[in-house]
Amino acid sequence: MTHATVPRPRDSAARKGSVFLSTHPRARLALLLSAPLFWLGLVYIVALVLLLVTAFWTVDSFTGKISQTWTLDNILTVVTGSLYQTVTLRTLGVALLVTLIDVALALPIAFFMAKVATPRMQRILVIAVLTPLWASYLVKAYAWRSVLSQDGILEWLVAPIGGHTPGYGLPATIITLAYLWLPYVILPIYAGLERVPDSLLEASGDLGGKTWSTLRLVVFPLALPAIIAGTIFSFSLSLGDYITVNIVGGANQMLGNLVYTNVGAANNLPLASAIALIPIVIIFGYLFLVRRTGALDNL
Amino acid sequence: MTDSQPAIRLTGLTKEFGSVTAVDHVDLEIAAGEFFSMLGPSGSGKTTVLRLIAGFEQPSGGTIELFGHDVTKRAPFDRDVNTVFQDYALFPHMNVLDNVAYGLRVRGIGRKERNERAMRALAAVKLEQMAARKPSKLSGGQRQRVALARATVVEPKVLLLDEPLGALDLKLREQMQVELKEIQRALGITFIFVTHDQEEALTLSDRIAVFNDGRIEQLGTPAELYERPGSRFVADFVGTSNLLDTERSLALLGRAGEHSVRPEKMTVGAGELAGDGVRNAWGTVVEAIYLGSGIRLVVDLDAGTRVTVLEQNDRHRAHDDERGDRVVVSWHDADVVALAAATDAAA
Description:
Strand content of chain B: 25-35%
Helix content of chain A: over 70%
CATH superfamily of the largest domain in chain B: P-loop containing nucleotide triphosphate hydrolases
CATH class of the largest domain in chain B: Alpha Beta
Number of domains of chain A: 2
Number of helices of chain B: 9
Mean pLDDT of chain A: 88
CATH architecture of the largest domain in chain A: Orthogonal Bundle
Order of helices and strands of chain A: HHEEHHHHHHHHHHH
Strand content of chain A: under 5%
Number of helices of chain A: 13
Structural class of chain B: alpha+beta
Low-confidence stretches of chain B: 342-347
Strand order of the largest sheet of chain A: 1-2
CATH architecture of the largest domain in chain B: 3-Layer(aba) Sandwich
Shape of chain A: extended
Largest interface: A-B, 17 and 25 residues
CATH topology of the largest domain in chain B: Rossmann fold
Helix content of chain B: 25-40%
Mean pLDDT of chain B: 89
CATH class of the largest domain in chain A: Mainly Alpha
Oligomer: heterodimer
Radius of gyration of chain B: 24 Å
């Protein structure tokens, strides 16, 4: 008739700490969030605010030092200068085309991955989509430079059917950027379609919906937030890019190049800040537009 | 010959998933206007048969006829059958009215007419006032009704229901059973109802097919299945049974072969009962479970087997706990069912 007794846990310091935390939810929250909030506040937000503030300063043309006198000159230059207008429109056009191409490519791939492929095939495809992200950005951009060159593999492939490589320029930039950002568009759309139950597609077919009706009335509306989430990636990443256009863009410049030359060669940090505000304003406008669709819940 | 065509005729229907045979040469005819249930445990193939009829799966062999027309190779949207899904499968981005009108919309019917017809279908399930709501704002029972309205608005010849009441609580389920039966009578169309709940199948159906291992174990009316189960599996799955193997049958009944007796066909008393065909067996009560309307007694018979007896709670109990009581279990020979050997039960 002896009972094996379960020993009570000993009163250690760790136990006391646990007891304190489990009875004080606010202390728990503070401990959890103080480090990331510090990072977000100081390193991220303050840097962004400094950028904004710098845009309203000016550079002493004699000494090259930043003078902290408030002026709207940089903003006015960026808004009215024809160079900045042209480059802004070009950058916007490139970003839009890249996004369009990526969505057109990602939709069928993501649909196949989420709704058609066997689980095994699905895993293989996810890996295939993710693998390019492991390679360096520069290596991929230079690979495209080689592919697109006058004696490159593309020319060799399409020459027999009378085609030619586009060479270096904006088309090459768009192709390369579309390649670079494609995984970022496929993955959210794939995740979004995965969450659409198969029974909804079956129900549509069962009620008489042919393939096109089902895609238009059921799949597309349900995938739209995920598609928009994907476009936010490709659009914003394209807006800020300046390396790809340097490597395959020929003489073309994008906003990033203007920022780069003003920080470096021209030593005009306030003007560079003002230019950098353009993509930020565009992205904020875009985010404001898509916020209503619920796409931001999908990021 | 057109008027005597069955609504559904399955001939040698087979479905294999890899090395697993989910449906194994099923032959079945379902009459027009019938409330037909496919009953079985999970993995018995009943849902696969339903999905084959709907067209969501392609059979590995055999044919499916709908009112005499072979629809085996037709796409789901090309068949005059509609499905009420287990998870209802309502479109979350559309309101209730658009959900119900969907089948009319994809058939190219104009907005005004399809909305009128959808409203009528919603009225039939008493949900007109919910037309503008999103499905996520409805209760389980309401979603169930919307799914029903959506599937019936396109006037199918056969309605397939895949465990439609499985997600509802008991009270609501009983209420929906009554409504389903009423709707089926009002529409006059064939209902094929898949369930693993034998009580539900017995309550609702004109006929039931009991599925086991991809085959139909027994086909019959609820009373036939319950009173005359053809095999050990059916006796055990439909209701509860006291199963007696050959040895016990010889000892208790003086007959060879497997037999079964329903618990409610047996009574427990202090003394032996007399009469033609009445059999008595002494035993000891080992468990007494109070059920409210009845008492379930588990009795160890002296003959060496354990039986369950269901007593109506219609008389005064001498004491609350019958455990340990010496009792006589009595039953009538006519209530003993001889079971066929399980292997050739499908015939």
